[in-house]
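Bump. Still looking for Glutamine amidotransferase structure tokens.
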Amino acid sequence: MRPFLLLATRAEDAIADDEFAAVVRHGGLQPGQVVRLRVDREPIGELDLDAWSGILLGGSPFNSSDPVETKSAVQLEVEAELARVLDLVVEQDFPFLGACYGIGTLGTHEGAVVDRTFAEPVGPVSVELTLAGRKDPLCAGLPTRFDAFVGHKEAVRELPSGAVLLATSDPCPVQMFRIKKNLYATQFHPELDADGLSRRIEEYKHHGYFAPHETEELKAVARRSAVPHPPRLLRNFFRLYARD
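Sorry for the wait, here they are.
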């Protein structure tokens, strides 16, 4: 099988490693079937799509909607690298799944309005598939309504032209969309379980997602939550697009 490529932008080693391990574990793959490239540390270079089964873009402390003058040199370089990849991916309708930062990145590339209108508190949210989502192969096996973990400073407010809304929630209307046939993005985290979210809460407690004094209560809420369904998206993505 040709491997999948995970484009990662988390600077913290422990959290970056945890995200990578979660994608492999929850996706039902073996080490080596997903290759990680930490874009904040090394350039992507020339990308031969024929070498890969598909591409994933994980979460990040970066926000697509932040004013350009507030973005670090690293973030601007990452955005330029990812824009170059998406030029190629979108043109070829190459299998792509972006989560968290991935929805803002793909959305921005395709003309979505991404801002802080529907920023979400950290924790579980009830996500509902649209009629299109219920028919989409990436959502096969998901119940119409399920809980997922979120926690974001920004979200897609207006879909890009031609995008199909696949999932929504009351606090954040755009939870998942598709462009063309093979380009997907989710606001919620398909790779996160309660332990993973708890580790991120601890790591990012001074990053403005919540008040630091809320840290332990947010962890407790995460551990009380039943969130078994979102990883099916990863398994479906790998199953649908794996190729020899």
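DSSP finds seven helices and eleven strands in the chain.

Edit: fixed formatting.
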